[in-house]
Design brief:
The protein is an alpha+beta fold. The chain has one domain: Nuclear Transport Factor 2, Chain: A. Helix content is about 25%, strand content about 45%. It has three helices and six strands; from the N terminus they run ααββαββββ. A six-stranded mixed beta sheet has the order 2-1-6-5-4-3. Helix 1 runs antiparallel to helix 2 and helix 2 runs antiparallel to helix 3. It is globular, with a radius of gyration of 14 Å. About 15% of the residues are buried.
């Protein structure tokens, strides 16, 4: 069974190649829990969602609603059964109050690994 660092390294490698869906399909547990800083009720997305289908849907929504000009990730930074990855993106939202405005985003993801799979992801970012 892969250790926490190995799982983190695989996640970073796949995300760096834009293969986020492959990362979800291969590294995430069926009952994965994902927690964002805030929900998006306008698109029916609560801050906390559970399950692979919900995570795939969130990822698909993000990709469909943002033009990604640049994306990079740094890490993993492991500690016990958890690791952190820092993501930096330059995107143009396709809808909402920032629609059409190119912007830079940075967030940190805290991931928890159990039995060789990611069972929890929690994101941290400034919304100012």
């Amino acid at each position: 069974m892969a250790d926490t660092y190995t799982i983190g390294k695989q996640l970073v490698d796949l995300c760096a190649q834009g293969r986020n869906l492959e990362a979800i399909n291969t590294l995430y547990a069926d009952d994965i829990v994902s927690i964002e800083v805030t929900g998006m009720p306008e698109v029916g997305m609560p801050a906390e969602i559970t399950g692979l289908d919900a995570i795939r849907g969130k990822n698909q929504w993000w990709m469909e609603n943002h033009e990604v000009h640049r994306g990079e990730c740094d890490g993993p930074y492991p500690h016990g059964d958890q690791f952190i990855v820092v993501f930096k993106y330059e995107v143009t939202p396709k809808q909402g109050p920032m629609s059409g405005q190119r912007m830079q985003m940075e967030e940190a993801g805290l991931y928890t690994v159990k039995d060789g799979k990611i069972v929890r992801e929690q994101f941290f970012y400034h919304m100012g």
